[in-house]
Amino acid sequence: MTVPQGGAAATPVRAPGGAGPVVDLRAVSKVFAAAGRGAVRPVEALAGIDLAIERGEFVSLIGPSGCGKSTLLRVIGDLTPATTGTVTVNGKAADRARRDRDYGMVFQAPVLFDWRTVQKNVELPLEIIGRPRGEREARAREMLDLVELAEFTGHHPWQLSGGMQQRVAIARALALDPAILLMDEPFGALDEMTRERMNLELLRIWERTGTTVVFVTHSIPEAVFLSTRVVVMSARPGRITDVVPVDLPRSRGVETRELERYFELVTRVRESLRGGEGAAGAPARVRAEGLSA
Amino acid sequence: MERPPAGSPEAGVEVGQVPAIDDIPGDAIPPPALVEAEVALGRDLEAFAPPTPRRARRVRGAWLRPALGFVGIAALLAVAWEGAKWIAGDPWDVRSILGIPVSIIHDPPYRWMPVNDINLPHAWTIVEAFFETDARGETLLQGLLGAALFTFRGAAVGFALGASVGLLLAILLVHVRFLERALLPLLVASQTVPIVAIAPVVVVGLKAGWLSIAIVASYLTFFPVTVAAIRGMRSADPRAYELMRSYAARDRAVLWRLRFPASAPYLFTAFKIAATASVVGAIVGELPSGIRDGLGGTLLTAMQYYSIQPQRLWAAIAVAAGLGIVCFVLVVLAERWALRHYRPTEPGVAA
User: Fold this and answer.
1) How many C-beta atoms lie closer than 10 Å to residue A43's C-beta?
2) Hey, are the CB atoms on B1 and A238 less than 8 Å from each other?
3) What is the DSSP string of A218-273?
4) If you write DSSP's letter for every residue of B203-251 in order, what string do you get?
5) Which residues of B touch A103 (CB under 8 A)?
6) What is residue B133's DSSP assignment?
7) B343–A189 CB contact, under 8 Å
8) How far is B54 from chain A (nearest CA, A)?
């Protein structure tokens, strides 16, 4: 492997977060005003969310469709404001944290710019904060090395497969050495085999960079495999019904998926999801996925 | 962990089922249908696109087929043209075609006015008209090409002016939402006013000259550019804007690094329309100005002599059409260069 030891070593100094959690949510709620005129009622997407995420943690948000897990992620990332409650990131208001570029975002789709090469896509955030060219190029190459795409710097996104594109998106998200990496179902559009490989890669990157990750998924096995904690949510309004600490060995690999404890935790999360949904009826997708695991 | 080699089995099977994007508010993000469609497109392309850039080879010979097709269609039109005259035109008494002595005497069985020799002169008389010389010993073709060049200058300046104005308007309208509602109806109204009515106003107001011609031409060109640019600048994946927001990017950075490049394919579609429209605009702009140097003046003169020398008007029309094609092709070439790094819209299709 060509990855330099400690990929984050030659990076800009991380904003001092001091002690305390990286993300601190207190009594957060989110209500979407009724769209348009008429008798459409406002939608209560999130209610009474309290959550603290420590530095270096890998936290998954899991729940049925429409439970607000993506909204929660977007509230943390200040892409949409919370209606009530406080969102503190790195000891600052979320808005401040965004302006300080404390976030790295990865979406379900890679959202790469077609007209830029892979290298230039990773350089994009560095361009925006006005880093000199030499530094940009070096940093982008370093990040592409980290996601093992060093050979594809000159390609355009549309010449890569879906999994490779998503790896470029991860490299781009890491380019600014963010204090927190927000990932919204990043592997949801990939097939199962690629997905498992990407899971392993993500773990490796996480271990190497030591960044904090908040990861939205609807796959129970994925959540358990990756996380240090799994946050289980229920729908309408979205609330946290359970937090499952994952006490699997920190260094994980293919064999982790065969551990007794892994299965127990998967079952635990599944039951938790079922309990949280109650009689409202669980969306078939989550249930089916849970059973197939 | 192995790096997948280019063209590994990974390509093509990567994107599996696309789950619906949930819990995103409707007002913050446009409907997921767009995003899904894009993902589906990406998947199709993925199955299709080879991992390495495909380049020149295929493009190099690509002009030949369309060129042959164009000549073929032109020939077909000429045959249909002469066929109609053979069936219902004036009696044929042809002694020479393009200098080659022939003898065709034919009395068409029917008579139909639109295809008589005045309305539809023989194709070769039009071609022959190009080489008629005037009092100064200049052939009509030379004169027409000179006129076309004059008109091209007006059209090109008008195009540049109209495209710039159109683009600036679009940038303004995209950033100041309420202006879009307030101004767009006015812009639409501006396009319903016949250009023939606008031209004299501009020409009188600015004095006849090629600048006033360019302004009339720009009047026709700015509108498609504005409409396409607004659409294009909003065409990117909504998450791309969120990405920029997560970098706390300023409006200017979003404009230059996202909106503008994302609108480029839309812009070139508008430029193609605008290029041909600018030729029309330049010709119409010449009419009330009394300028006789361009195709507008030539067409006006030819119209006055139509009943005796209809082939001269047809020759002028042919040159005007040719100028339109040249302008269009110039835009296509520019597009091909400018969008060379963009995702090919339809694999294997040039232009």
Assistant:
1) 19
2) no
3) S-HHHHHHH-SEEEEEETTTBEEEEEEE--S-SS--GGGGG-HHHHHHHHHHHHHH
4) HHHH-SSHHHHHHHHHHHHHHHHHHHHHHHHT-S-HHHHHHHHHTT--H
5) 246
6) B
7) no
8) 10
Structure token digits, residue A257: 């998926």
Cα B72 to Cα A87, B76, B82, B83, distances in angstroms: 69, 6, 15, 16
Q: Is the pTM of this model over 0.80?
A: no
- Contact: B15, A189; criterion CB under 8 Å: yes
Q: Are A202 and A97 in contact (CB under 8 A)?
A: no
In contact, A214 and A181? CB cutoff 8 Å: yes
Residue with more model confidence, B269 or A260: B269
Q: How far is A247 from chain B (nearest CA, A)?
A: 25
Q: Report DSSP state, residue B287.
A: G
> A201 at the B interface (CB within 8 A)?
yes
* Delimiting residues of CATH 1.10.3720.10 domain(s) in chain B: 140-338
pLDDT for A126-175, tens place per residue?
999 888 999 999 999 988 988 888 889 899 998 888 888 988 999 999 88
pLDDT band per the 50, 70, 90 thresholds, residue B46: low
Superfamily of domain B140-338: MetI-like (1.10.3720.10)
Nearest to B46 among A105, A124, A162 (CB): A162
Question: Which residue has 């004036």 as its token pair?
Answer: B90
A115 → closest Cβ in B10, B247, B261:
B261
Does the distance separating the beta carbons of B341 and A156 come in below 8 Å? Answer: yes
Q: Which amino acid is at A215?
A: F
**What residue has token string 């990855």?**
A3
CB neighbourhood size of A265 (10 A):
23
Tokens of A231: 């946050």
Tokens linked to B286: 């010449």
A159 close contact with B: CB closer than 8 A: yes
3-state secondary structure of A42: coil
Q: Which residues contact A187 (CB under 8 A, 6 or more apart)?
A: A166, A194, A195, A198, A199, A217, A222
Residue at A1: amino acid letter: M
A128:B25 CB<8 A: no
Cα–Cα nearest to A99, from B248, B40, B233, B190: B248
